[in-house]
Structure formats: C-alpha cells, structure tokens
Design goal:
Keywords: Membrane, Transmembrane, Transmembrane helix. It comes from Streptomyces qinzhouensis. The protein has 225 residues and is of the alpha/beta class. Helices cover 47% and strands 13% of the residues. Strand 5, helix 3 and strand 6 form a beta-alpha-beta unit. The longest helix is centred in the first third of the chain and has 75 residues. It is rod-shaped, with a radius of gyration of 38 Å.
C-alpha cells in the first residue's frame, strides 16, 4: 500500500510539473506572438511615416523648384514702364572730376573712384552723381525723389531702403518724376511707394544680373555731408 501511495504522489507531481511547463510554454508562445504582432505594427507604422515624409519631402522640393523657376522667370521679364540702356554704351572709367551725365539721375557711366555708402543708407540731402553711379556699379538700387513726392511715400521708401542691403536713397531736385528707382542701366518712375513695381524693381536689380562688379562691397564708401 505504501508503495502505491508513493507512486500516486509521484505521478501527481509529474503531472503538475508538466502542466506548469505547458502553461509556461503557452505563455511564451503568446508573448512571442504578441512581440511579432507589435513588430509588424511598428514596421507598418514606420513605413507609413517614412512614405509620408518622403512624399512630403518630394512635395516641398517640387514646390521650391516651381517657385524658383517662377522667380527666375519673373526676373527675366521686363518691368512695365522701365527704361533700359545698353550696358556696352555705359562707360566705367574711374575719374576724379565731375561727369556730365545725359540722364537725371544717371543710370551708369564713368564715375568717381569712391562709391557712395549704399549699405541700406538713407541720405537726407542730395549726393554726388559720380559717387552714386559707382554704387550702381556695385549692384545697388538708388531711390530718388523730389519735393512733389508725398511724405508717406518717402517714409515707406526710406523704411524699405533701411531694410535692404545694397540700396540707397536721396532727394534729387531736378529729376523728371516725383519718385524714381535706378539701377545700372535701368530706371523706373512711379507715383507711389505702394506701386507693386517698386518691390519688383528691388527684387530684380539689387545685386541683379545687370551688376557690372558683383561681389564689390557697398559699405565703407563716402557717407555724405
């Protein structure tokens, strides 16, 4: 009898151990399955995110390329009403004396050895033509106005010049228009600072393709009276 009881107990223990191993194995399988499922979900989400980022990146690049092409195209288009001079007919000799310019303000030609400081500079009084023309040669846009220009327009243009490197502004008594914008070989007359052509002129000609001496500085020049 004792032997039978012993065998029965041993059998029960074996069964219990077997059940525990079975439960552990089942739990491991469930956990492994859960991990595989999580990996698949993570990979799937990552793929969607990567695809989204790639798609967004392509969209941004295409958009930037389109905007760049549009900007280039706009810069090539002439600005309505602007006057254009043949750059080959504009002298670039450095002189020390006065130069007789056919246009007021001058759009280019021989000029003084020193340029007018054109690093976002607003002058309250007129500046020498010869120095200002040298600034145009460096890629500056020169804004000039007469006493016929409205005060609000003068203030708006002054703010734009102060915010724009390679530009200068000064009064010009005997020019034809109330407000004129000049670059090397380019000139535009406007009636108001709000004329959309003002921004176009700045965008196109501040260090634009017309610049004879690209890379030349606009600071360190003559600073006026």
């Amino acid at each position: 009898m004792a032997s039978g009881k012993k065998t029965s107990k041993s059998y029960s223990k074996n069964n219990a151990a077997h059940d525990r191993r079975a439960r552990i194995e089942a739990a491991r399988k469930i956990e492994a399955s859960r991990e595989r499922r999580n990996r698949i979900i993570t990979i799937g989400i990552s793929g969607v995110v990567v695809a989204g980022l790639v798609g967004f990146g392509i969209f941004v690049i295409n958009k930037e390329n389109k905007e760049e092409k549009q900007t280039v195209a706009e810069r090539k288009e002439p600005i309505q009403g602007e006057k254009v001079w043949d750059p080959k007919k504009l002298g670039q000799t450095h002189v020390k004396g006065a130069v007789s310019y056919p246009d007021k303000p001058p759009v280019g030609g021989d000029h003084h050895t020193a340029w007018m400081n054109c690093d976002a500079k607003v002058y309250e009084e007129s500046v020498p033509n010869e120095n200002a023309v040298h600034s145009l040669e460096h890629g500056a846009v020169w804004v000039t106005y007469t006493d016929k220009a409205a005060k609000k327009d003068i203030e708006k243009l002054a703010k734009k010049v102060k915010d724009t490197a390679y530009s200068l502004m000064s009064p010009y008594k005997d020019q034809a228009g109330a407000i004129m914008l000049t670059a090397w070989g380019k000139q535009l007359t406007v009636e108001s600072a709000d004329d959309p052509r003002v921004n176009k002129f700045f965008s196109k000609y501040v260090l634009g393709e017309q610049t004879p001496e690209k890379g030349a500085t606009c600071s360190g020049g003559v600073t006026g009276k």
